[in-house]
Amino acid sequence: MADLSQIVKAYDVRGVVPDQWDEATAELFGAAFVHVTGASALVVGHDMRPSSPGLVRAFGRGAAGQGADVTEIGLCSTDELYFASGKLGLPGAMFTASHNPARYNGIKMCRAGAAPVGEETGLAQIRSLVERWSDSGGAPASDKPQGTVTQRDMLAEYAEHLHSLVDLSHIRRLKVVVDAGNGMGGLTVPFVLAGLPLELHDLYFELDGTFPNHEANPLDPKNIVDLQRRVREVGADLGLAFDGDADRCFVVDENGDPVPPSAIAALVASRELAKAPGSTVIHNLITSWSVPEVIRESGGQPVRTRVGHSFIKQEMARTGAIFGGEHSAHYYFRDFWNADTGMLAALHVLAALGGQDGPLSRLVAHYDRYASSGEINSTVEDQFNRTAAVKAAFAGRENVTMDELDGLTVTGVNWWFNLRPSNTEPLLRLNVEARDAATVERVRDEVLAIVRAEGERTLTV
């Protein structure tokens, strides 16, 4: 019996297969998903991991056994699954572990229209049912007729929808290197970029869930080294890197230098606001000061929120926001059912760069205005008391404010930092930003000295 406390996270299901969960567990999840969502039909897709096809079939059996008709769209990116959920008006389930190593797999679930299923929006109920049925020997028999399982390819419709949102027909010819990391970008990128005025240089487009070249996690600098090298070698205009399920996109400029996701968020926000002046744009509290500044300069209304896709999507739905951006390279679009899609963000970058004559480094300089530390993780067993110690150290200082929307955010005259506990690991995550690098270093070192005061082990990313 699977220990669901180890695999059911705040936003999804994720764990090692078959050690932590297997096809029998996936079948129970399929049945529970139908019970909680009330779905009479649903859509499922999966990434290229060796365990994905079997898990999808098991999930489908569980759902069909409860009377739901299952549409399998096969190999796809996570944002293609969200597209299918929105286009078909069906709840959906995507089998992927994103950037995690090969032995992991997971399920990202949504209601019709790609509305998220997280801990507070159905996932806790699904977990409870799976636990109960595991104890009793299986899901109860349904009085509904057995559901059907059919296959449908939606890649062409997905690409057509993306092209309807960003016009690249008149851009100058660009040389682009794309690193798919042996993930789902290897399937979606050639299809979406076909026919555009691009010279495409591909890295690791072969679908291989064992990740033979590097982890499909571009957030870790070591995993974009090959992309940076190839950009310089071929004299490319830019490089793009996708994570394993291709819902996140990272950008490097013509020099091979990484472009901060906050700068991409600000750039895309300005383009979206040009279409709908005065609209609301969501950003999480760890994005750069540049993001709300550009939103206001572009005539929009910035709204700050907690980190995490469920919070972003909820705020987008509540406010009618046109766009949302996170520091982790998740980009959300009203025209994409408020869901995140790295591919659509990439098309915006290509359109912006190809619509003018300068290099990408010059273009993004307008959106990248401050120095930052990047995310620094410290392994800390007593997260609460370490955070309290940092709060006490900065309390009462002149011109310093604090809030606890998500972890602890402390803001000074020309700097800010956020210290936030991980939801799944004994870590404290620190992000610092300031108007100059020297101030970043000073604030960073002061906070870390308190966090690590008792000799905790550390890991910096």
Q: Considering the protein shown, what is the CATH homologous superfamily of the largest domain? A: Alpha-D-Glucose-1,6-Bisphosphate, subunit A, domain 3
Strand fraction equals 15-25%
SS element count, helices:
15
Give the CATH level 1 class of the largest domain.
Alpha Beta
Structural class: alpha/beta
Radius of gyration: 22 Å
Q: If you had to describe this structure to a student in words, what would you say it looks like?
A:
The protein has three domains: 4-153, Alpha-D-Glucose-1,6-Bisphosphate, subunit A, domain 3 (Alpha-D-Glucose-1,6-Bisphosphate, Chain A, domain 3), CATH 3.40.120; 154-369, 3-Layer(aba) Sandwich (Alpha-D-Glucose-1,6-Bisphosphate, Chain A, domain 3), CATH 3.40.120.10; 371-460, TATA-Binding Protein (2-Layer Sandwich), CATH 3.30.310.50. Helix content is 37%, strand content 23%. It is built from 15 helices and 24 strands. Strands 1, 2, 3, 4, 5, 6 and 7 form a seven-stranded mixed sheet that branches. Strands 18, 19, 20, 21, 22, 23 and 24 form a seven-stranded antiparallel sheet that branches. A five-stranded mixed sheet has the order 9-8-10-11-12, sandwiched between helices. The longest helix has 18 residues, at 119-136. Its cofactor is Mg(2+).
